[in-house]
Specification:
The chain is of the alpha+beta class. The protein contains three helices and 26 strands. The protein has a four-stranded antiparallel sheet with strand order 1-2-3-4, with no helix packed on it. Strand 21 (306-311) and strand 22 form a beta hairpin. Helix 1 runs antiparallel to helix 2 (227-247) and helix 2 packs antiparallel against helix 3.
């Protein structure tokens, strides 16, 4: 075997290992596939979290600068802060709490949000926010988390959190005592509890899973992506064929087979990615929310830069918006929230703004 062939073979193995690592967790912090994130000069710095309380106040979490903001219903800034006195992250270290992620506000100024390898509950009514409790710590033991993203509090006061890199859902009671956990097939992004259902978005798998409260899957919304399986088959075949034909001293066939398998992998992955732009298909499904009347489910479709609407059983009804930066267009939509008038607000993260639509999808206004 020539030195050139050895180097090419080693390079192919390295590529295979790297692809496998990416497939396990393709959206590590700082990597946003398909995003067109640009720096902002406004007050919203890649806002990913948005919520409303019953008074009409707006809660916004910025990812880039770590600011947590509270605005009145007109958009006037009421409060802004980055730290909570007494907060310690999942490693037990003092740090900023805001990661720009999901916010839940069950009562005015009573806030739940995902923090650094844990969740936090705090009271923002006073001059300074007051930490009430934290949920979980960093790790993989029961009650621990690695990269939590979504958070939800149900009517019983139980707190559900997505444990992204451990690929599971963790549930705590109102006093932050760990209750139970269940595994999911891929890194979970957002979670929402509706009556006896728990909806979980598995963004990298391209579908949402509806489970019972003990984690038994009831049905799926959307269809699972196929590109991991395409790569799991074609890349090993490429390397094996390369090695086999070289061992048989047929280098021309070796590289022909190798390139054919790589081409098949690329074409298969491209086909799988692009086919998920049809109604009812998702490219990174993200936050989800039930309409105020409890009849429809609104789902953020990040890489398609749109909102999709289904009934509560996942049957497609309509879609609206699309990619861009003009009013009414979206760029990497994140958390969704309904205001008191029943209008849908979207954390239009990579456009650094909040976009407001009617429930039917008509664009109303921007908050920048």
């Amino acid at each position: 075997m020539t030195r050139k062939t050895q180097l090419l073979l080693i390079g192919a193995v390295v590529v295979l290992v790297a692809v496998g690592a990416v497939l396990r967790n393709p959206l590590k912090k700082g990597l946003k596939l398909g995003s067109k994130h640009a720096a902002s000069t406004g007050r919203f710095q890649n806002p990913e979290g948005v919520a409303f309380d019953s008074l009409g106040n707006i809660y916004v979490a910025n990812q880039d600068d770590g600011n947590f903001m509270i605005l009145d219903k007109t958009g006037k800034l009421l409060k802004e802060f980055k730290t909570l006195d007494g907060y310690r992250d999942g490693k037990g270290q003092t740090s900023q709490f805001c990661r720009g992620l999901y916010i839940r506000v069950p009562e005015p100024f009573h806030v739940f949000t995902t923090a650094v390898h844990n969740g936090v509950e705090f009271d923002a009514a006073g001059d300074k926010p007051k930490l009430l409790r934290t949920f979980g710590s960093q790790g993989d033991a029961p009650g621990q988390m690695d990269g939590p993203e979504g958070i939800w509090r149900d009517v019983n006061g139980d707190v559900y959190m997505t444990d992204e890199h451990n690929r599971r859902i963790n549930v705590f009671d109102k006093d932050a005592k760990f209750l139970r956990t269940w595994s999911v097939p891929q890194d979970p992004q957002s979670v929402m509890v509706w009556k006896d259902r728990v909806y979980v978005s598995l963004d990298k798998r391209g579908y949402l899973s509806c489970c019972s409260k003990d984690g038994v899957e009831q049905f799926r919304i959307g269809h699972a992506v196929m590109f991991p399986y395409i790569l799991y088959v074609t890349l090993p075949c490429a390397v094996i064929s390369l090695a086999a034909f070289i061992a048989l001293r047929k280098p021309q066939l070796a590289w022909t087979a190798f390139l054919v398998f790589l081409g098949t992998a690329g074409a298969g992955c491209a086909w799988d990615y692009w086919r998920h732009d049809q109604p009812g298909e998702y490219r990174l499904c993200d936050d989800l929310l039930v309409s105020p009347d409890g009849t429809e489910l609104f789902i953020g479709d990040r890489h398609n830069s749109r909102i999709q609407v289904t009934d509560l059983d996942g049957r497609f009804k309509r879609t609206f918006s699309g990619p861009g930066s003009k009013p009414g267009e979206l760029n990497d939509p994140k958390q969704l929230a309904f205001d008191a008038d029943g209008n849908l607000w979207v954390a239009d993260s990579d456009n650094h703004r909040l976009s407001c639509f009617t429930r039917e999808g008509k664009f109303l206004r921007l908050l920048e």
